[in-house]
TrEMBL record:
Entry-linked InterPro entries: Hyd_form_HypD (IPR002780), HypD_1 (IPR042243), HypD_2_sf (IPR042244)
Lineage of the species this protein comes from: Bacteria, Bacillati, Actinomycetota, Actinomycetes, Kitasatosporales
Lineage top rank: taxon: Bacteria
Entry coiled-coil feature ranges: none
Entries under Pfam families matching the protein: HypD
Family to which the UniProt record says this protein belongs: Belongs to the HypD family.
Record NCBIfam families: hypD
GO MF annotations, alphabetized: 4 iron, 4 sulfur cluster binding; carbon monoxide binding; iron ion binding
UniProt keyword annotations, A-Z: Iron, Metal-binding
Key word Iron present: yes
Organism: Kitasatospora acidiphila
Biological processes annotated in GO: protein maturation
Protein name as it appears in the record: Hydrogenase formation protein HypD
Length: 380
C-alpha cells in the first residue's frame, strides 16, 4: 500500500539505523511530541533498536490524556442532563473523571453517542430540534479545524440547539513549557507532522533558537521516526539547532492557510490547563466572542466542579517525559485498560496504553536475538 508499506521497509530501516549508529558518539535524549509517534515507536520496538546512546522520551501529544479532569467532569455533568444528546469521539468514553466516565453516564440513562465527525453531531442537532446536542471538542491543531468549521456551519445555518464543549490545546507552548522545566532532559524534538500539516513550521524556528534544540518535523511510520531521529542526532552531533521538515509528503512550510483562517475566525488563544501538568500560558483555544453562544460551558453553566485525581496516578510525569509508564507502581496492577486510573492508560495515543498493549510490562532489560534482517538490540 503506497505511503504505508514503503515506510515500513526493513531494509531501509536497517540502513537508517546503520547511519544513526555511525553518527552518534555520545548520549542524546530526544522527545517525540505526539502519542501516535509513541505508539509507532513502542509497537515496532524502535527505541530498542536504536543505539544505547539515543533515548526517546515520550511527550505530551495525546489529546485525550491532556484534557483536564475539570473538563471531563463538566462533560459528565452535561451528558447527564435529560435534555442533552452528548456526542464524542469514542476514545473519550472510557476516560476517567473524578468518579465515573461517559460509559457510566450512558449506562445510567444519559444519551451519549459516539460520532466520527463533528458534522455528525451537527446533523443530529438538525434532526432533533427539541434536544440540546453537545459535541465534545478536544485535541490539538489537528482536530481543531474541523471543529471550528462545524461551529462556523452551526452559526451560518442558524442551528441554535448545537453547542461545543471546547478544550483545544496547542503544541508550541507545550514545547516551551517542557524546555523551561528545571527537570527537562530533552535535547531535541521530533515534532508532530500532522500538527505541522495544519500550522506549518513557522512557529518552531524561534523555539529552536531560544532553547538551542533541533526540531525535526516527523511523520508516523517506522521509517519516518527513524529519519526524524537520524536528522536530530546529526544536528546534535555537530552542534546545530535548526528546524527540519522530514515529513514533506504531508507538510508544507506554510501549512494549510484555509484551516488556519478558520481557526483564527472561530477560536481565540487562551491559557489552558493540561491534565497532570497544570496551566500553560497561551496553550489552548476557546470559542471567540463571535461564536461564544455555541459554548457549552456557558450554555449549561457548569461551574463549581470539585475534581480529585487518583493519588497513585503519575500521568503528569509520564506526559512530561519524566517517567516511563512501567515505572509507575500502579502500571499493570491496579491500573490497566479495563481499570484505568489515568487517561494515558485508555487513550489510543496514551503512552501507558502503548506500553500495556505492546507488553512492555517489566522494567528489567535483557539482550535477546533480534528478528531476522534486523540487528540485535536491547529488548524487553
Ligand atoms: S500506569 Fe495508570 S496510574 Fe500509572 S501513570 Fe499511567 S495511567 Fe496513571
Amino acid at each position: 500500500m503506497k505511503y504505508l508499506e514503503e515506510f515500513q521497509n526493513p531494509e531501509l530501516a536497517r540502513r537508517l539505523l546503520d547511519d544513526i549508529r555511525a553518527t552518534v558518539t555520545r548520549p542524546w535524549a530526544l522527545m517525540e511530541v505526539c502519542g501516535g509517534q509513541t505508539h509507532t515507536i513502542i509497537r515496532h520496538g524502535i527505541d530498542q533498536l536504536l543505539p544505547d546512546e539515543v533515548e526517546l522520551i515520550h511527550g505530551p501529544g495525546c489529546p485525550v490524556c491532556v484534557t483536564p479532569l475539570e473538563v471531563i467532569d463538566k462533560a459528565l455533568e452535561i451528558a447527564s442532563r435529560p435534555e442533552v444528546l452528548f456526542c464524542s469521539f469514542g476514545d473519550m468514553l472510557r476516560v476517567p473523571g473524578t468518579d465515573r466516565d461517559l460509559f457510566r453516564v450512558r449506562a445510567e440513562g444519559g444519551d451519549v453517542r459516539v460520532v466520527y465527525s463533528p458534522l455528525d453531531a451537527l446533523r443530529l442537532a438538525q434532526q432533533n430540534p427539541g434536544r440540546e446536542v453537545v459535541f465534545f471538542g478536544i485535541g490539538f491543531e489537528t482536530t481543531a479545524p474541523p471543529n471550528a468549521m462545524t461551529v462556523y456551519q452551526a452559526k451560518k445555518l442558524g442551528i441554535r440547539n448545537f453547542s461545543m464543549l471546547v478544550s483545544h490545546v496547542r503544541v508550541p507552548p507545550a514545547i516551551e513549557a517542557i524546555m523551561r522545566s528545571p527537570d527537562c532532559r530533552v535535547q531535541g524534538f521530533l515534532a508532530a507532522g500532522h500538527v505541522c500539516s495544519v500550522m506549518g513550521v513557522g512557529e518552531y524556528p524561534e523555539l529552536a533558537e531560544r532553547h538551542r534544540v533541533p526540531i525535526v518535523v516527523t511523520g508516523f511510520e517506522p521509517l519516518d521516526i527513524l529519519e526524524g531521529v537520524r536528522r536530530a542526532v546529526r544536528q546534535l552531533e555537530c552542534g546545530a539547532h535548526t528546524v527540519e521538515n522530514a515529513y514533506p509528503r504531508a507538510v508544507r512550510p506554510e501549512g494549510n492557510p484555509a484551516a488556519q483562517a478558520m481557526l483564527a475566525d472561530v477560536f481565540e488563544v487562551t491559557d489552558r490547563a493540561w491534565r497532570g501538568i497544570g496551566v500553560i500560558p497561551d496553550s489552548g483555544w476557546r470559542l471567540s466572542e463571535r461564536y461564544r453562544e455555541f459554548d457549552a460551558e456557558q450554555r449549561f453553566a457548569v461551574g463549581g466542579i470539585q475534581t480529585r485525581e487518583p493519588a497513585a496516578c503519575r500521568a503528569g510525569e509520564v506526559l512530561q517525559g519524566l517517567l516511563k509508564p512501567h515505572e509507575c507502581e500502579a502500571f499493570g496492577t491496579t491500573c490497566t485498560p479495563r481499570t484505568p486510573l489515568g487517561a494515558t492508560m485508555v487513550s489510543s495515543e496514551g503512552a501507558c496504553a502503548a506500553y500495556y498493549l505492546y507488553r512492555r510490562l517489566d522494567l528489567p532489560q535483557v539482550r535477546i536475538a533480534a528478528p531476522a534482517g534486523v540487528e540485535a538490540s536491547s529488548v524487553v
